[in-house]
Amino acid sequence: MKKLELRIEARDGSTNQVLEIGDLVIAGWAARDKVAMEHHIAELEALGVARPKRTPTYYRVSAARLTTDPVLEATGTQSSGEVEPVLLAAGGRLFVGVGSDHTDRDVETYGVTVSKQMCDKPVAGTVWPFEEVRDHWDQLILRSFATIDGRRELYQEGPVAGLLAPVDIIAGFAAQGSLSDGTVMFGGTLGAIGGIRPATRFEGELEDPVLGRSLRFGYDMKILPIEG
Question: Which InterPro entries does the record match to this protein (predicted)?
């Protein structure tokens, strides 16, 4: 079990809890907007990644890969982040957060499942109760920034309405229609502005314009050498 200390930020107050995570699922190719999904598939095809056999695809990753650390270590320079909404089931409740499906792009060209396992998955240290955003889910906004060649750039931006709704993405994975306690699911991403590329720092956020709040995280890259 991976233990994550998270702040649960609710409208009536906040608490800190240590949650035990046993299962991590990365939902890939999870766009509701098929045009946007085709754009992302084309981005990855340009990097040599094979077109998926089905959509969405649910990749299983070790729960130990989840982290709130501010530094991510990766082998070589060909990995990159992508911001995603994150669903977390604990104590019979569902929470929403935000994280990065950081992926080794070289490995992705010959094994997407393996590439998902290669890198840690940073998440924000704060989550919201899902019921507080359920009724205005499609108005939430995903956004990321990448620092490339010393310059911070807008890397991704758009409403989560472009992705499958939580009820649909969960139903595709869990026959009972709900996530089991201790399960974390990444819920898909947006196309990168200017194409997928590595960065020395990656930042992501999930904005709730209705309740006037945001979840944010960021991490710096520490590159480990490839010796053979």
Answer: DUF2848, Fumarylacetoacetase_C_sf
Summarised one tens digit per residue, pLDDT across range 8-23 is 999 999 999 999 999 9
Q: Report yes or no on whether pTM surpasses 0.90.
A: yes
Per-position b or e across 44-76, b if 16+ CB within 10 A of its CB: beeeebeeeeebbebbebebebbbeeeebebbe
Task: Residue 189: give the domain boundaries.
Answer: 2-224
What is the identity of the amino acid at 174? A
Q: What are phi and psi of 84, to 5 degrees?
A: -145, 145
Please state, in angstroms and rounded to a whole number, the distance separating the CA atoms of residues 101 and 120: 8
pLDDT tens profile 36-86: 778 777 877 887 888 888 889 999 999 999 999 999 999 999 999 999 999
Report the C-alpha gap between 215 and 81 in whole angstroms. Answer: 17
* Domains contained in the chain, number: 1
* CATH code of the domain containing 53: 3.90.850.10
